[in-house]
Amino acid sequence: MKIAVLSGKGGAGKTLVSVNLAAAAKEATYMDCDVEEPNGHLFFKPGKVHTEFVYNKIPVVDEQRCTGCRTCVDFCKFNALAYINGKLRIFEEICHSCGGCQLFCPEDALWEKNKAIGKIETGVSENVQVLTGVLNTGEASGIPIINRLFEAGQNTQNHTIIDCPPGSACSVMESIEDADYCVLVAEPTLFGAHNLKMVHELVTLFKKPHGVVLNKCVEGDNPSEEFCVNHNIRILEKIPYDTELGTLNSNAFIAVREQTAYRQLFSSLLQKIDKEVAYETTTHP
Amino acid sequence: MKQLLILSGKGGTGKTTVAGAFIKLAKAKAYADCDVDAPNLHLIMRDLKEPVRKDFYGMDKAVIDQDRCTACGLCQEHCRFHAIDHDPLYHVNPYACEGCGVCERLCPEGAITLQSDLAGELMLYSGEPVFSTAELKMGSGTSGLLVTEVKKQLTHEAKDAEMAIIDGSPGIGCPVIASISGVDMTLVVAEPSISGISDMKRILETAKKSNVETALCVNKYDTNLKNTKSIEDFCQDHQIHFLGKIPYDPEAVKAINNVQSIVEVNCPSGAAVKKVFERTIKILLNES
User: Fold this and answer.
1) Could you please report the per-residue DSSP string of chain A?
2) Record: contact A169-B205, CB cut-off 8 A
3) Closest approach of chain A CAs to the CA of B160, in angstroms?
4) Does B10 lie at the interface with A, CB-CB under 8 angstroms?
5) Which of A140, A176, B132, B144 could bridge across to B153 with cysteines, CB 3.0–4.6 Å?
6) What predicted TM-score, i.e. pTM, was given to this entire model?
7) Which CATH class is domain A57-116?
């Protein structure tokens, strides 16, 4: 079963919830798709880490063969190639690796080299298999790394917890595509409620069953809770603002492994999610 | 125009709260929100009039004409983005399509065309001050292009403004790189957690690649004094301007929920941000 954890706003507690859900399960795979800022591994500190690099294909020109016909330059929608002073120039940072330039070159003057854009790391932390995607700094898109992560985590039978990137852009979509259930984490501010609305639209668009975890709850108004009530969205859990949990989290400890109370909290959350998924599969098979 | 960009790497460190405070303190005549995935700055700006709205078209998307498609599969075979599905008809997944045009050019039947795709909306509040922002459509992938448009709008509309304050986006990828391009200085708002430090290092590395003046402040510093100290040490070792520490402040949450900036109410975080602001302006106006 694949559970995606997302939040429109960064810092709402997405990693806190995903790491602790995975730790509370009997056996789980934790997949960190927030490849721009992966943090889960800092908590799990996995051992026996295996690293695999992820590459993009970038064109290289054979100057002996290039006749300057500009077929590639005209074709490239991303303006990643230019013919300047009798030479073909390639701008690697903006190339999307579509392969069009070498495919359509009439002189066979282009070939492709591999350029590492990041890596995936696989390791083990007690009951959890930890998969982390890491984008190299300066690289624009982590999508190929997210795709590779899903290939690597494909054959897992147990709970798979997917820690998604913040926001609601393409990388998030890529991360929830295969999910059976989406957990939306929101904090009790106007910002939190506004961004909850955005991710809620996203999961609705993709027809994903979902529920909300309200994090850092304090006394007083909670605009995110109001949003859930007004839109009939299932509230799975309300986690109070708690300095002890905050301190554990800030020091990259896994709360579930430190204290029984937190183990109970997240085990019960996981059970609720399991029930929701079981219900979904019987009503919408 | 001197442009100051506020960044964080990790989300939720208080980037927008700091940006909102800076805008008030500077009485900024020009500002922008480049967090097009999840824009929030407009939520704490009161008295905004109706903006001028403009559709934003991203990269084109491929569309297959079913009447012409003979199901040869050539498009699917060559699509590097796995954007073509068949079940059994061939069709394009618009969320995965990057608009490269390989399929259009390859299709022997001429069944594929690239069509324009609405990817978001640009909003411009003009007059004084000028505020430029945008919202990306759900699941869209052209956030870098949209960020560039937000900044273009701002510099075009507020040509005479001395200074612009720009709220960046979280992460280190394409929208962040687009945000950094052309600014005079970035201020990173860091959070003293192990995660926060890891993200801080990655955003500093990203900013360094574009050779822009970089400074840093710590928010919620008192939630972890040990980590705050190690951020200070890191800045010293790497010659990054360390501009101050802002305490965790329950009043800040209240202020935001009342649509106020933390410098409009009397609170500890507001007082601390003022100091960070003064130091930032000194660097922005003297050194760049």
Assistant:
1) -EEEEE-SSTTSSHHHHHHHHHHHSSSEEEEE--TTS--HHHHH--EEEEEEEEEEEEEEE-TTT-----HHHHH-TT--EEEETTEEEE-GGG-----HHHHH-TT--EEEEEEEEEEEEEEEETTEEEEEEEEPTT-S--HHHHHHHHHHTTT--SEEEEEPPSSSSHHHHHHHTT-SEEEEEE-SSHHHHHHHHHHHHHHHHTT--EEEEEEEE-SS--HHHHHHHHTT--EEEEEEP-HHHHHHHHTT--HHHH-HHHHHHHHHHHHHHHHHHHHHHHH--
2) no
3) 31
4) yes
5) B132
6) 0.91
7) alpha beta
CATH code assigned to A2-54+117-283: 3.40.50.300
* CA distance linking residue A236 with residue A221, whole number of Å: 18
Mutation target among B85, B172, B223, B248 for the A interface, most CBs of A within 10 A:
B172
**Is there a contact between A167 and B170 if contact means CB atoms under 8 Å apart?**
yes
Chain A residue with minimum CA distance to B11: A10
Where do the CATH 3.30.70.20 domains begin and end in chain A?
A: 57-116
The alpha-carbon gap from A280 to the nearest alpha carbon of chain B, in Å, equals 24
CATH class of B2-57+120-287: alpha beta
Q: Residue A83 is which amino acid?
A: Y
In chain A, list all ranges with CATH 3.40.50.300.
Answer: 2-54+117-283
CATH class of this structure's domain B61-116: alpha beta
Across chain B, mean pLDDT equals: 93
Residues 79-138 of B with CB under 8 A from A: 80-82, 95-96, 98-102, 105-106, 136, 138
Token readout for B224 is 């972890």
Domain ranges, ordered by start, for chain B = 2-57+120-287, 61-116
Q: In chain B, what residues touch A143 (CB-CB under 8 Å)?
A: 141
pLDDT band at A167; cut points 50, 70, 90:
confident
Tens-digit pLDDT profile for residues B15-65: 999 999 999 999 999 999 999 988 989 988 888 889 999 999 999 999 999
